[in-house]
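Example for tutorial group B:
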């Protein structure tokens, strides 16, 4: 099977990760009162940077790169942009909800890419994207398990009239 769609989807994923890096950095810089969440996000920023490099490696295997109009221009789907806007919210709970949705968007994207790589007989791409997928799953799980803590802290802080937002 030819790899036209695979190339396209790898480029989309590359744009997605570049966007993720920006949003996570913005989020981390606003989380001084939520050190656990901040730490996890900082860890995921490092993972995300490596994911960008891994995707560039995958595109190289197919004789292409990310420097296309698509990557520079449109960057993300409408969904990604909507979620990105929410992640930029000056409120930790809303940003947390959006992050959880974003991680699941990434999970779905990599599942499609892995299937396409398998069908195009690209085992290395399949394996690399499976490594990335595991990091996204771990991040989504972490957010799923901690979102109620964050909400709890947020509401307590607000009750005590402390600065709760970030
Ligand atoms: Mg990612
Ligand atoms: Fe992620």
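The residue assignment follows.
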């Amino acid at each position: 099977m030819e790899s036209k769609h695979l190339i396209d989807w790898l480029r989309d994923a590359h744009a997605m990760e570049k966007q993720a890096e920006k949003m996570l950095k913005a989020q981390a810089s606003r989380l001084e009162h939520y050190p656990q969440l901040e730490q996890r996000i900082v860890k995921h920023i490092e993972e995300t940077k490596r994911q960008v490099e891994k995707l560039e490696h995958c595109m190289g295997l197919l004789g292409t790169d990310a420097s296309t109009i698509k990557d520079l221009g449109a960057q993300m789907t409408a969904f990604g942009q909507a979620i990105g806007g929410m992640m930029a919210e000056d409120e930790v709970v809303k940003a947390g909800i959006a992050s959880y949705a974003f991680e699941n968007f990434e999970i779905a994207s990599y599942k499609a890419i892995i299937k396409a790589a398998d069908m195009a007989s690209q085992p290395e791409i399949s394996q690399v994207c499976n490594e990335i997928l595991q990091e996204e799953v771990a991040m989504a799980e972490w957010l799923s398990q901690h979102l109620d803590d964050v909400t709890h802290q947020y509401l307590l802080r607000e009750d005590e009239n402390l600065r709760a937002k970030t």
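The chain has one domain: 4-159. Compare this with the pattern of hydrophobic and polar residues in the output above.
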